[in-house]
Amino acid sequence: MGRWLVASGVALAVLLAVVAGLYAVTTVMPDLAPEPVAVTQPPEPSPSSVPEPGGSAEPESGAPVARRLEGEFARIADQYEAGSRYPPYSFPIDEQAVSDYRYNGYSPVRVPVATDDGERATISLSLDRLHFEHGEPITGQVSVGGNGASGVSLEEVTLRNEAGDILHRESLEAGSGNQRLSVSPATQGVDEWPVELMLMVSGDFRGEPVDAVAPLRYHAPVGDITGVGASRVEGAHLVIPVEVAVETSGDYAIAGNLYTESGRPLVHVEHETWLSSMEGTAELRIHRQALEAKGDEGPYQLGDLSLRQLPARPGDRTRFGPTGEERHDVEGAPFERYSQKNYQDPMREARLEFLRNAAEEIEP
Question: In the chain, which stretches have pLDDT less than 50?
Fold first, then answer.
């Protein structure tokens, strides 16, 4: 039984590593804020589960675990087979997935508070995005709900480093628990601030101090997307020129989402390139197969355009420029105008074969 548990653990570890590797190849995931990691201790064995000295635990059948592993490998293989039909720089998306590719988003922070008398309230704090640039206001929204909301008074907002030191302080509208935030640090000295900051909203609830903290990243300007040129068909791709102005030379990623004229999401597109510290042009390339999968020849709209400066060396963090809210008109073309050569990943069949056969290699 011990050998089977070890083998199962190894198989699961291999599965997770394979899945991570395959998704890294087939999709481009957004940069996310780090999630807290919960560290737990393994549970103590109950007396009934500990073998008597000289005895052995009764072996359990490994067949159910093997079937679960086999099913998991098959599920991952099916997902990879479907996703790897498209190049990683342009693939179909739907309404459920489009929010994952609106980079630089933010999830609200909710802090519940209560009094001894049973009054309860929740402070909700949400920034407009995770990354902000020096010289622009840090914006968001704070609101209070619950049966005790009227007893909450938010009075101050501060920017702090990870040690909790206050770098900037502003007063809030007295007595209001629901308001728009716009925090504008002075430009002098911010170059010395750390990138990782915390925005703290503080006040009181029936005389007791309360606060809510939202993490953010605050860094030097990255650049801007200044325009979108006329599209053209080139081989199997619809090519869309994007005009960019960056602050420093380096490696950048430009991303966006293609929509129908009525606003239905079609394709996520992304391009990485080296840009010099001046105005330049990057070309987004959308493969015909991704467009055909959605059955739309255009015309289109290109939106959610974002610019990211990629790490120059190990330890650097990705830096985000502003995400554009404007939709740009893009001309399409009949599918017969494109090259009919399909996208092919040279490693696709080998990876699929590995996933299909992986479960058969594990014996109970």
Answer: 1-20, 22-58
Runs of H (alpha helix) within the chain: 2-26, 63-83, 95-98, 288-294, 348-358
Q: How far apart are CA 363 and CA 165, in angstroms?
A: 56
Ramachandran angles phi, psi of 9, nearest 5°: -65, -40
The yes/no answer on whether domain 98-102+222-337 falls in CATH 2.60.40.3870 is yes
Task: Output the CA torsion sign for 83, 89, 93, 98.
Answer: positive
Superfamily of domain covering 115-219: Immunoglobulins (2.60.40.10)
pLDDT digits (tens, 9 = 90+) for 198-229: 999 999 998 899 999 999 999 999 999 999 99
Are 330 and 298 in contact by the 8 Å Cβ rule? The answer is yes
Query: What is the pTM (predicted TM-score) of this model?
Result: 0.68
Q: Please choose, from the candidates 318, 331, 148, 308, the residue with its C-alpha nearest in 3D space to the C-alpha of residue 229.
A: 331
Q: How far is CA 127 from the centre of its chain?
A: 15
Q: Which two tokens stand for residue 196?
A: 């990782």
Evaluate the omega torsion of the peptide bond into residue 299 and state whether it is cis, within 30 degrees of 0: yes
Residue of 123, 292, 315, 336 lying closest to 210 (CA atoms):
123
Cβ-contact 281, 252 below 8 angstroms: no
Tokens of 52: 């008597």
Residue positions counted in the chain: 364
Same fold for the pair 98-102+222-337 and 115-219: yes
Domain residue spans of the chain: 1-29+60-84+345-364, 98-102+222-337, 115-219
State the pLDDT at residue 328. 96
Which pairs with CB-CB distance under 8 Å and at least 24 residues apart come from 134-138?
Answer: 134/187, 134/190, 134/191, 134/218, 134/219, 134/220, 134/221, 135/187, 135/221, 137/182, 137/183, 137/184, 138/181, 138/182, 138/183, 138/184, 138/185, 138/199, 138/216, 138/218
